[in-house]
Structures are given as C-alpha cells and as structure tokens.
Amino acid sequence: MERKKVLITGAAGMIGHYLVKKCLDKGYDVLATDIRFNEITENTFTQYDRNHFEFIQSDLREFKNCKRVVKGVDIVFNVAGVKGSTARASQLPNDYFTPMLQFNTNMAEAARLEGVEWYVYTSSVGVYSPADYFFEDEVWKTFPSPNDRFAGWAKRIGELQAEAYSIQYNWNKVSIVRPANVYGPYDNFDPMGAMVIPSLIRKAHENKILEVWGDGSQVRDFIYAKDVALGMILAIDNKITEPINLGSGLCHSIKEVVE
C-alpha cells in the first residue's frame, strides 16, 4: 500500500508530539515542522526512523515557508498555535492575534493550492462564549469571552476561511476540531504562557505555598494531549467536515486540580 505523507505543524508542542508518534504507528511518512526546536524535542525525535520521519524548523508566518513544507503532502495537521495565560492574553494580546492569523491563513491557503487530500484545523474552545455546555453549532450566535477575545477571534477567522473555501472552491476537505483545556508533557511552563495545570505544577515546584486566583470554584474540562491527537486522527478517518468539540466531557474545579 502506498504510504501517505503527513505534515504536522506545531510538532514540538504537546499535541504535535503525540500526533507524530500516532501517525508513524499508522504507517504514514511524517514531515514535522515547528518554529521551536529544543533539546527535549531533539531527544524525542531522534528515536524515529529517518526513512519515514523528517523535522524542519520553519516560521509559518511566511507564506513561502508554508508552500515549501506542504509540497507533496497528502494530509495536513495544522496544530501550530500560541498558548498562554489569561494575564498574557490581557497584557500582550497581539502575541496571539497577529501570529495566529498569519500562520493559520498561510497554511490553509498553501494546502488548498497544493490540493492536499485532507486538512485538519485546530481551533479552540476559546471560540465560545462562557456557558455550562458548548454546542458546536451555536458558536456564531455569541462572542468569545473578554479573556479569550483576541485568540478566540483569530481561531474563528481560521474556521471562516475553511467555510469560504467550501463556498467558492467546493473544497470540502477540512476537519475543524475545538479542543478543551489541553494538558500533558511538552506543555508551556512559562510564567506568562502557562495555562492552569502547567502553571500550578510550576508554582508547586518553586514555592512552599500554592497560590491560586479566586476561590478555586471555576470549572474546566481538561483533556490529555494524547486524546486530542487521537480525536484529530478519528476526524480524518471519518472525513468529518462539521466542527467538533474534543473534550473529556467532565468538569473539574480549579480547587480539585490544586488538591
């Protein structure tokens, strides 16, 4: 059987690492790319067979780089993204907004022009307005929360781009996934960039007292990075073209996580 060639952007991140392994396990040839490349990533990726795996360090904010990495690719997992805390989102909103608009728009356009077999766009639960339950088809009736306004709208624009391609070019080869609060190995532990779980891990490691914002009653749906990767692969296997949530379906308070 002819081996499919898969491109995974954001491969140095926590979802990307699992996608690389799972796609290799499925018998795909994998081209991985990320703007980051550190010792941890290098140690992880060196274990893979170089006949079927390649890593390219590339800045996908540049369209020419997107065209280069997508050449000859059958399937694209666009997992590139900018993660960060609520504090960072409020103080440095353009760190999210402009880069995500650039690499999401460029990557999708390069994939369309190359005529890839399937494209997976990683959106976010941040596209939703705060609610007890998130229903996929209700996104456009509301607005993202003030805390997720810039990142949420940047992700929404990526979803609209897929819809525009469907209308104008009849290019219905896109799966849109909206992961909940993802955690796992290779997460971002930077003080300004860390989400809830990695932030708490860092605080526990560095301090005797674990400080949290508020009373800890806020609830989140946390999903492990490996499960997100599996959900994305299932979206391709089933050719799902409607946006889907990827979550555990369970709510946990910040207080529970702390304890």
Summarize the topology.
Layout: E1 5-9, H1 14-25, E2 29-34, H2 39-45, E3 53-57, H3 63-70, E4 75-78, H4 86-91, H5 94-114, E5 118-122, H6 149-169, E6 174-179, E7 181-183, H7 196-206, E8 219-220, E9 222-224, H8 225-237, E10 244-246, E11 252-253, H9 254-258
Parallel strand pairs: 1-2, 1-4, 2-3, 4-5, 5-6, 6-10, 7-9
Antiparallel strand pairs: 8-11
Structure characterization notes:
Helices cover 40% and strands 17% of the residues. With 259 residues, the chain is of the alpha/beta class. It has a seven-stranded parallel β-sheet with strand order 3-2-1-4-5-6-10, sandwiched between helices. Strand 1, helix 1 and strand 2 (29-34) form a beta-alpha-beta unit. The chain starts with a strand and ends with a helix. The mean pLDDT is 91.
